[in-house]
Amino acid sequence: MTVAPLLEIRDLSVHFNLPRLTPFGMRRILHAVDGVDLSVKEGECLGIVGESGCGKSTTALTVMGLQEPSSGQILYRGQPLSGPGAPGRKERARIAQMVFQDPYASLNPRQTIGSTLLSQLALHGIARGSEASDRVADMLVRVGLSPDHAKRYPHEFSGGQRQRIGIARALMLDPEILVLDEPVSALDVSIQAQIINLLMDLQETLNLSYIMISHDLSVVEHVSDRVAVMYFGRVVELGHWHAIFSRPTHPYTRHLIGSVPNAEAVLGRSRGVPDPVAIPEGRRFAPDISVRPEAGASREASSLVEIGPDHFVRLADSISSPKAKR
Amino acid sequence: MQLRFNLTLGAALVIAVLLGALTAGWIAPFDPVMDADLMSSELPPGGEYLLGTDGQGRDIWSRILYGARVSLAVGVISQIINSCIGTALGISAGYFGGWWDDLVNGLTNVMLAIPSLVFALAIMAVLGPGLASLLIALGLTNWSWTCRIARSSTLSLKSQGFVQAAKTAGFSDLNIMRTQILPNILGPVLVIGTLGIGTAILAEAALSFLGIGIKPPQPSWGNMLSDARELIRAAPWAAIFPGLAIFVTVLGFNLLGDGLRDRLDPHMRTRKA
């Protein structure tokens, strides 16, 4: 019997009902997340990659409790973190925190940095008075700012500094899990490296577990221990970062890694953004004509198969050789 | 410079009107109701009567000073009621969404579809004339714009990182609405509110004109205007000065609101420092 992982996502699905196109039209459902299984061990960084609309952010929001799952479970050390047995908002805050993508929208423009950070300590009754201010000052120093920045308003900071503040806020309650939703994609490349290094330092010193969501493969490769590749709401490949980047198996993973320098040159044509509402039956990976998906395989038929140590790939739409038929 | 000018002039006008209303009992040269003298009716401005007299020979300056009490009370208090109702409904509708949002939206649309003056008229007809009924009637009928603004601003704020972050930090919904959303929508609500004070002052005038607002011998800028309607050729000052009083007051509130909005914006605050 192994110990329950720090965080476990079991068969998670999130569906959104879309308005009908005509009053008597078909009921349309967007399968944002469609049967995702993932787990995070202590001190580990799980990277989730995929293109816009593949469900990676929705997965993160569900972990944070900002989005109710349609089905499936999220477990924290074996205890439910979603559904009827889930802890309240305050309890959950001590478990997981989130760093948001847009550093400009993630700070209240009418609160000083200090009061944003202090209010959390007060709410959870962690510290009061001068002890609380000391904690805030410590945290600001820890993320590379100076204690007197606490008196300032968000608009007085640069994008990189704001992201540091966003990290400070996420760490104020000493959470075990940090969800990083595209933490550097809104920043300059030169600043990106600083923030990535800060995040890696913090992970080590505070023994944090990360769920890092990104479409930037180089960032994911640099930070993650394991990588999950998501496509149309499902995990299509999962494994150690080295395995994923050295032996990408699923055609979509290959496509992603191959497309880093220039997607159009690789494919010889523009792919456009696929429409996640209208997924052709049995053709989960249809928009890319350079890859031949397994035609006719139903959803049930596709499953994650272990092809190497801790390296999983979704079978039905992954291998184009006839041998791989189920 | 622009910022200080708006705020200073607006505040000066509003304070002037406020002082006039508060000290009417001391600085008004005549009693606004009892000093009626048909012998001195329709006198032009100047001399003993600063702004002339009306059809019943009452001093217009004194009546304007006393009328300011009614106009300010009705305008400010009813608009405060409106703003509170509109903001509370708008924020909660935008924040929670779902059936509550549908309900509030429907209610807002109904309120916008009924002319608010007619609705106020109906309430006044039930409650009878008087200051208290005016406050209730005007305070319950003009919140829909505030509600709309508050709701749409809340919708756009709700998905922003800092509101989500407050949720993940464990703050309650009520706390988030109060500390994260309300301060960020105060600007537009304040501006709508100041415009609403003008609307309420005009609505009071209209209701008084129809005889169900402030009862006639008591002066209000509204019934002064309607009394002067018949004398517009013979004694235009009887209409001009109450009208001017309304104009100055509404202008003052608008400038004040503009200035306050800029002042409340932290971007402005530090640019000056």
Automatic annotation (TrEMBL), chain A:
GO terms for cellular component: plasma membrane. It is a peripheral membrane protein. Its main location: membrane. Keywords: ATP-binding, Cell inner membrane, Cell membrane, Hydrolase, Membrane, Nucleotide-binding, Repeat, Translocase, Transport. It is found in: Cell inner membrane. Its EC number is 7.4.2.10. Residues 9-257 form the ABC transporter domain. This is Glutathione import ATP-binding protein GsiA. It comes from Paracoccus alkanivorans.
From TrEMBL, chain B:
Keywords: Cell membrane, Membrane, Transmembrane, Transmembrane helix, Transport. Residues 68-257 form the ABC transmembrane type-1 domain. InterPro entries: BP-dependent_transpt_permease, MetI-like, MetI-like_sf. The chain crosses the membrane at residues 7-28, 117-141, 185-214, 234-256. It comes from the Bacteria. One of its GO terms (cellular component) is plasma membrane. It is found in: Cell membrane. Its main location: membrane. It is a multi-pass membrane protein. Pfam families: BPD_transp_1. One of its GO terms (biological process) is transmembrane transport. Belongs to the binding-protein-dependent transport system permease family. This is ABC transporter permease. It comes from Paracoccus alkanivorans.
